């Protein structure tokens, strides 16, 4: 898949952020549009990053007591109507299966839908699985001893989005959805909070992406939830991206699907529920948190290739000696758990290779030329700072490990500095209208009404991203930035992806 | 999910193999029917086994140079018609998406399909992905330098089966599908053979399941393939189960989707293809290879729990002391890489627990009662032989590891002995009709015609499972068991799942 790469085809961030993002996703071989409207192909390099995300998240879910299972792709249409708010939120733009057979076209060319194979009840390709899962849980839960039930599923889901963007909003996307059942409201709330905490930890430690954890306003809640917790990240253009949500569903789905358990006293009670999910959208968040005009910048913990080695040589003999030395160094680095690639392609110039691996965001590049070989050194380049230093071959493996930690920290610090520089308190409506145009998060007082929230959205396209749980940054008396009515805490307003 | 388990609800194998299988899948918490016709729910315990299979297969694919990617769930209807044989094989019973929106029903109750949201071209939920993938490869492959392209995808697929059985034949199932592109026919053939070899190795080493590797007859080939390689296993009722296939697709899909590459001489050539897959069907094969009337028997390499520990006690004080000792032993076994569970549920009798873990196929059970504790021993029971011995606590971790290896070997040996006892050469049609009723594999001469193959199938329901690649077991001159015409090799006939 090696092609001529022209980094100039990746437009500058400052010029057109949206085009920069799309260019990058395609040029770095992460994903591309498919022949099916709104559905993407996740290319091997992009999928390798997603696999790393999956692996860490899956480990974190299991460490917190969850097990994986798999539920059907299809949901009977009637299931969606069972929970009143849920159907409102999800039974709109979706993929509807109406027939189960094709037959040869009467004209003999191609195939047509067989009208005799109409389904009695249409099936919906799952936009989310609460309904089919709670219909299943009905048979799994009888007694308090069956609780808590802590399941997760890795799956594809489909929401027929009208305007799609690679990773950020696609008709089909990959995700995980946790669905848990509990004996008490308190336990379910604790679970929903625990899982948004897992997401925040994953975002910070693995994606090197700072996030604000908070509640969604009633208006922005998941359809069918009593409370939605969210992690909100700030992209490099100052817009917000909702990176993961965790919902306290109360007894809504238990009631809709009649899931009761007998408690310790032998009395029947409805079960309490949560659900929580992150998706391939995280790929978009990752890209828009760290990357630059040279391409992708990956945190070492999620980089499929952590160190790339590029030989520089004139003669075959030089090439052989340098590659032999690289093999030794590669083994040393692999022994320390690093993933290393030697780029020994013989049809490309070093400069081309440098640009390609920069575009692909490999954290560290090691170059060896004939003179380096003689001097027992390598040229060591960091992708995050683009710094280059000469370093002894002897200590390379240790230094590469150290660099991974340092790059990971630096990426977080850089993203956090940007974010902190773009969060500001705003107290008047005039100021709000000016500031929102500059991007970033505005910490404002809000009167708590959906009416005000919607007026602000209509006038400025800004939404309440969350009501932060970290009370010290927002709990103070004040007046609603729009209505002037009293407010006891600030919330985060921003324009969002 | 603890329920009263009555093993008598699992009918004996000898009595009704098919019911025994279904009972087992449900009672051992592997899978169950869902509310959607033909679609199963894979329960956590079943999914944990599937995850172990995935992990090993994925490792083997990566070790042989493959990378994962993800392609769309939907296939435009017209794509299916591009490859003539493929459409014949797959564009029949499938899930057809015709609309992309629901709306509130005119009577206000529930939702109905919005007739205004009809798709211009219907989408098919992928029954297999050759068409959408080769349509994508068209843009990925330009030069011989882009080859070979070695991708795999883990995905769900849908084939609208009329008669379904848990794991063995379901409308939706989980699988992996490898799709590779090569510069030459020889390379593609070598790849298809290599991957059927990977499947055979996985079946033998991880599933402890002997298989015969062979070619499918033309009639049984994958729709669009020039050659299909298969691994065929023998279930305990003597029926065959096709456990994995690998296809040499020639240039059929490259021509259908116009995928050409410029070779080293700069000339355009069509690309050569393979595809290969295994699915959750392997779960059915695993169950029907080893399990018995007490329930599931799992090979240690795929068992989610390898050692279960059950305490026996009368007093709280005994319970505490035994559990403390178990914690120590558990840690010792975990340190050696074993997965261990202590069943400390206080509402169930030991006998009930024994039956439950036998039903779930846990390879080794460790029981400690007060007297064992005093004597520094445990009771050690093997699931495969149901043997029990007293063993010193001091050496338990090492012994448990040793047992894992021994059980794994024993399961393979047992399955292989059964298989060898049920493979027989048959040379006359009279004999064939008698022998096929007894089950097992019949090694017979066949004249190589589809006509004969179909007559045999019509009369006996037996099909050609494969033309073995291991020539020494089948290459000999003879006469077709049905037509009497000359034949140069025996093939495997059997009734199959």
Structure write-up:
2 copies of one chain form a homodimer. Chain A is an alpha+beta fold. The first copy, chain A, folds into 3 domains: 17-290, Bira Bifunctional Protein, Domain 2 (BirA Bifunctional Protein, domain 2), CATH 3.30.930; 300-407, Anticodon-binding domain (Rossmann fold); 423-494, 2-Layer Sandwich (Translation Initiation Factor IF3), CATH 3.30.110.30. Helix content of chain A is 34%, strand content 29%. Chain A is built from 14 helices and 25 strands. In chain A, the strands form 5 sheets. In chain A, strands 3, 8, 9, 10, 11, 12, 15, 21, 22, 23, 24 and 25 form a 12-stranded mixed β-sheet that branches. In chain A, strands 17-16-18-19-20 form a 5-stranded mixed β-sheet, with helices on both faces. In chain A, strand 19 (377-382) and strand 20 form a beta hairpin. In chain A, helix 9 packs across helix 12 (396-421). The radius of gyration of chain A is 26 Å and the shape is globular. The model of chain A has no long low-confidence stretch (mean pLDDT 95). The interface between A and B is large, with 71 and 71 residues.
